[in-house]
Design goal:
- The protein is α+β, with helices and mostly antiparallel strands and about 325 residues long.
- It folds into two domains: about 200 residues, H-NOX domain (Alpha-Beta Complex), CATH 3.90.1520; about 80 residues, Homeodomain-like (Arc Repressor Mutant, subunit A, Orthogonal Bundle).
- Helix content is about 55%, strand content about 10%.
- It has 16 helices and seven strands.
- A five-stranded mixed beta sheet has the order 3-4-7-5-6. A two-stranded antiparallel ribbon has the order 1-2.
- A hairpin with a 2-residue loop joins β3 and β4.
- It comes from Pseudomonas cremoris.
- InterPro entries: AraC-type_N (IPR032687), Homeodomain-like_sf (IPR009057), HTH_AraC (IPR018060).
- It holds the Pfam family Arabinose_bd.
Length: about 325
């Protein structure tokens, strides 16, 4: 899968803050994110980069998603967070959040589903790394609960929470985060609350401010998603040529633009040609290594490395382990 989705450094910064006793380099290993990047508020990273940092965190603590989600307050979402806070009612705010998943940065298809007097806030259609599915759903649903509490200015009473995966050995911590009955091996990932809350007025509602900020969110979403579509096209084009990468100049020619223009556009999106090439090679290498069908020398050749040793060195730089250690 070619990752075209871009996101902010919010989650990465939270991981580093949560593991403040650990060296940042350990948590950033294999992500392509440097410590210096963390000081730039406008830095954009790919979902793949974010997930690598999260994988490093999960390797240290399997239940870390529950803690990270608890720290994702509505203020973490920039303009969208402000638009949600100034909405007239709780239901208006939730529907606005669902309208702009790119600004929310979610990896799930979020929905509000009516079930009699209950509303289920559901997270489905997860398409990222299956090994991080449980972490991501814990992170997602806990952060959604925190957003709800922030909007209301008080805890949203939940009626039930349910999860598709089996109960983990730290299941008692779920009760701490959701404060309601929790069911595992269910049909979906969701939590339920009384439908009457949708009409609850928000304490920070402001019609004039909301209208202005919501319009800025609409424009930001249009620009952001447009950039993602363009970046997805560029990644897809480069992804078909990994065996003989065209270089910045060659790729620019294929895109009918100058190398300078391509370099500028990539820089505006927080990446470079080499970073994009490395990420695509890394993703393809992990796929082929996990399938365990091609020898390592053949994988190196297919990814455009002139020598197997060069591929091994690059893979260690990306992942922290040798290709042979990555195989099942």
């Amino acid at each position: 899968m070619l990752h075209s989705h871009l996101t902010t450094l919010n989650a990465v910064s939270l991981v580093l803050a949560t593991f403040k006793d650990q060296a940042s380099e350990l948590l950033l290993a294999g992500s392509g994110i440097g410590v210096a990047d963390l000081s730039h508020a406008d830095t954009r990273i790919t979902t793949c980069q974010e997930m690598q940092v999260c994988a490093n965190a999960v390797a240290l603590r399997r239940d870390i998603g529950l803690d990270l989600g608890q720290r994702m307050h509505v203020s973490s979402y920039g303009l969208l967070g402000y638009a949600l806070l100034t909405s007239a009612t709780f239901g208006d705010a939730l529907r606005l959040a669902l309208r702009y998943p790119a600004l929310l940065g979610t990896l799930f298809e979020l929905s509000l589903e009516e079930d009699g007097k209950r509303i289920w806030f559901t997270a489905g259609d997860y398409r990222e790394n299956p090994a991080l599915a449980q972490f991501n759903v814990e992170f997602c649903l806990v952060s959604l609960k925190v957003i709800c509490d922030d909007l209301l200015g008080q805890p949203l009473p939940l009626l039930e929470a349910r999860f598709e995966h089996p109960a983990p050995d730290y299941q008692a911590r779920y009760a701490e985060r959701f404060d309601c009955p929790v069911r595992f091996q269910a049909a979906s990932h969701a939590f339920a609350f009384d439908r009457a809350w949708l009409d609850h007025p928000l304490p920070l509602a402001d019609t004039v401010t909301h209208r202005a900020v919501a319009e800025r969110c609409r424009k930001q979403n249009t620009e952001f998603t447009g950039r993602q579509v363009w970046l997805g096209r560029v990644r897809q084009m480069l992804g078909t040529q990994l065996h003989a990468a065209p270089g910045l100049e060659g790729l620019a020619k294929q895109l009918n633009c100058s190398p300078r223009t391509l370099r500028r556009h990539l820089h505006a999106l927080g990446c470079s040609y080499q970073e994009m090439l490395d990420e695509l090679r890394f993703e393809r290498a992990k796929q082929w290594l996990s399938e365990d069908e091609l020898p390592i020398w053949r994988i190196a050749e297919q990814l455009g490395f002139s020598e197997t040793a060069s591929f091994r060195h690059a893979f260690v730089r990306w992942s922290g382990v040798a290709p042979s250690q990555f195989r099942p």
